Each structure stands twice: as C-alpha cells, then as structure tokens.
Amino acid sequence: MTRNHAPASLPVALTIAGSDSGGGAGIQADLKTMEAHDVFGTSAITATTAQNTAGVDDINVLPTDHIAAQYDAVVDDFAVGAIKTGMLATADVIETVTDCVADFAGPVVVDPVMVAATGDRLLSEEAEAVYKDLFDHATLVTPNADEAELLTDRTVDSVEAADAAGRDIVGLGADAALVKGGHIDGDSGTAGDSDEVVDTLVIDESATDATHTEQFIHPRIDTDATHGSGCTLSSAIAARLAHEETLTEAVAGGVAFMERAVRYGIDAGSGPGSVHHLVEMRERADREATTAAVERVVARLVEANAETLVPSGGMAVVGATPYAESAAEIVGVDGRLSSTRTGLRHNAGVRSGVGSDLAHQLLAAREAFPELRFAATCRFDDAVEQSLDTLDGTVVRGEGDDPTAAVSNATSEAAERPAAIVDTGGDGRQPGVMLSATTAATLRERLLALHEALITE
Question: Dihedral through CA 283, CA 285, CA 288, CA 289, nearest 10?
Fold first, then answer.
C-alpha cells in the first residue's frame, strides 16, 4: 500500500561560515545546533580549514563569487527565517557577505570570529575594520571578550567593561551586542565570584536614544573543552530567532543551551574536546530508556517484597539521563513504593518530573559525580547503618539544613563516588540514607544486597 506523504514544516536558518574538518565548530557546529532546535539548516561556506581540537593547520578561502552564489541559491529557494555569520576570514569575504545580507529582512546574528579557541588567527588584520560595515545589518553581534577588545580598542576585563564594549558595538551600527563573559576571569560584578560567567546583552533603544542592558548569569564550567562554543551559541540564538522568539528570549535560551552543551561536552580528539551540540536531543531521547530502567528496579523490588528497605513515608526510586539538569528531567516512581497488606506496591507508574525530594538530591550528587544516574531512598536506623558496610562501595555522610544540602555537602567532600549517602539529620529532621549508582542494575543489586543483609541479621 502506498502511504501518504506527511512532511514536516520547519523554520529555515542560514549559516555563512567556514568549515571545520574537526566537526566541533564552524558550519558543522552550526548545522548540528540548528537541527537540535528543530530548524532546517542551510549553509554558504566561506572557507575550508584543516583543523582539529588541537589547532588550525591550513585555511583555504573560497572565491567570493562562489560564496555569493551559495547565498543566492539558498535565499532564492528557501524562506530563510534567520541568518548567522561565522568565520569570514578576509576583507573581500566580509564585503561580499555584507552585500548579500543588505536586503535580507529577517534577523542577522554576526559572530565576529577572529581567533580560534586554540589561539590560531582566523581573520586577517586588514579585515577587522571592514567587519564593522557588516554591523549595520546585524540584529545581534556576539563577540567574546578578546574579540570585543579588537573591535572597540578597549580592555574588556570586567562586566562593566563588557557593558561599555557592548555599547560601543551598538554605536557602530548593530541593533544589539552580546559580550560573552567566558574569557573574563575576574570579579563577576554580581557576587565577587569568578565561578560565575556573566554574558552582557546591550540592546539599542533608538526610540528613546538610549541603550538597555541585560545580564545572563550562569555557573562557570570547569573545563577547557569549549571548541565550537561561540559558533554553537550564535547558531542557537539564530535558530530561536527563526522560531520568532524575541531577541531576549533567544539569547536567554541560547545561553542555557550552551551551558549544558559545555558541561556535557564530547571527549574527542587529542585536544581539550568539543561542546555537545545535540545534548538536549540526547537528553530527551534517553528518557524512555531511563524510565524503563527505573521500572525494572521497581519490578525487582516488588518481586523480592523488599519491605525492609521502605521508610515510613514510602520509598522513592529515580533515574537521570546522562545529561539531566533539572528535576523535570528526572524520572521516578509517581506516588512512591509503600508496604501494603499484599506486599510492596506502588500507586502509580514511572514518569518524568515527579517532583520528589530524591530528584533534587540526585542532582546535587551529580554536581560532584556526574556519572551517578540512579538513586533510591531507604529507611535508616542502627540496623541499616550496620548493613551499609556490606555494600560494594563507599558510604559518605553529610550535614545540612535539608536533605539536598546534606547530600551536596557529603559528595563535595567525597574522595570517590559513593554507593550510599547518609543525611545525618538536624533540628526536627531524622537521619536518612540514599543509595546511588551509575547504572540501574548496580542500584538494584545494592538495594537487594541491603535487603538480604537486613533479613538475615
């Protein structure tokens, strides 16, 4: 039987940038990021590079007439909703791209790529001045601190300096500038804490002859694996603009997307590694398998009738995808496991976002040990504490104002990944214990081992 065609209708975005043979930046990063945002990505390649995570070995700039032909081929056929530019390399290429986008009515995000993360120069010095002509057509310019310094001739080493540089770039003709704070190592300007990154968005308010500034603050990720981060952020913003988000919404969403892409980066190549462009797609795709894994743990506990483990308020069991960042992305037993007259039972199924305290405790433990993915609460008394010694892993203890803080304190000081985390309790709060593991099978084995130890004591 012939089936009906059921095509999807997606927004279209265009990237005008160089190719990265290493796959982490450039056109490759742009297209993967656009796909992750449910946008159909098109491209006009400005140059090919011989590069990897360690550096750039060679650059071959394409003829400008061919670059223009690629642009025309795309905009003549597709309803392009947004454009982003990346590596443009030479003055001639910048002038060509400026001419191309001059008549484009939609948003244009300009990532002024000048120097690679490895330190290799990707823009000729004579091209820097010409770059500013492109800003007249830019909805947003996204320089890092080093690029902002080259564009404005001012030192950008603080949030205040980033704001001033952003205003300078807006003064050059751009509608807005996002000065990224990843290269600013000093005072964040908010809490005096360099563990925070502050990205500064300056928006032209021509109607009031003034500028408006917003800050996007997020934790700094302790890694050098940021290859492709600039390309990925600007592509994420362009993709969101193609979905007709406002500029502030697109920037906020792009920054949040980038935080996860950096934290769960890809360990590839001999250099520091690349950001993970498809991390949110992977997170969503892995929830079904994680749900099934939690269901198997629950089924085995019910089969074994492991009532010895159940706290008075019921037993929670949760699982996280490898990339989970919020309680909404944690799957768990809805309604908890409870002892009944017919044995151990749960009132509902397993689903995402059950909102249990255990979800937050697992996320806290993952800050120190991101490989931890599954956890369960158990009753805690002297018998359980003695039986914890039979587990095939370390038992750690922590104090705090609540169970999540206790888990965070215990794991932050742990020398190795724990099998059990004891909340020592506090004012009006009884001690408790959380078993944790990297796999559902390991969690199941630990729970059943603890159950056997308790019934045979």
Answer: -80
- CA atoms 232, 233, 238, 242: torsion sign: positive
Query: Which carries the bigger pLDDT value, residue 132 or residue 257?
Result: 257
- Taking alpha carbons only, the member of 107, 103, 102, 60 closest to residue 84 is 107
Q: What is the DSSP string of 142-186?
A: ---HHHHHHHHSS---SHHHHHHHHHHHHHTT-SEEEE--TT--S
Bigger pLDDT: 130 vs 167:
167
Report the distance separating Cα 146 and Cα 165, nearest Å: 11
Helical segments of 8-60, H only: 26-36
Residue 452, by phi and psi: left (phi above 0), alpha (psi -120 to 50) or beta?
alpha
Instruction: Please report which residue ranges of 243-356 form alpha helices under DSSP H.
Output: 247-263, 279-304
* Over residues 55-84, mean pLDDT: 96
Q: Which residue has the tokens 């071959």?
A: 60
198, two tokens: 């502050």
294 Cβ contact partners less than 8 Å away, ≥ 6 residues apart: 317, 318, 319, 331, 332, 333, 350, 374, 440
Average pLDDT, the chain: 89
Segment 360-372, tens digit of pLDDT: 999 999 999 999 9
pLDDT at 187 (0 to 100) = 45
d(CA 192, CA 182) in angstroms, rounded, equals 15
Residue spans of alpha helices (H) in 264-381: 279-304, 357-368
Task: Quickly count: other Cβ atoms within 10 Å of residue 77's Cβ.
Answer: 10
Using alpha carbons only, give the angle 144, 148, 149 rounded to the nearest 5 degrees: 120
- Count H helices, E strands: the chain? 13, 18
Q: What's the confidence (pLDDT) of residue 345?
A: 67
Q: For 135-188, what is each residue's pLDDT tens digit?
A: 999 999 999 998 898 889 899 988 999 999 999 999 999 999 999 988 786 544
Q: Compute the Cα dihedral for 143, 146, 149, 154 and give only its sign.
A: positive
What's the token pair of residue 33? 């990021």
Residue 418 CA from chain centroid, whole number: 25
- pLDDT at residue 226, as a whole number: 86
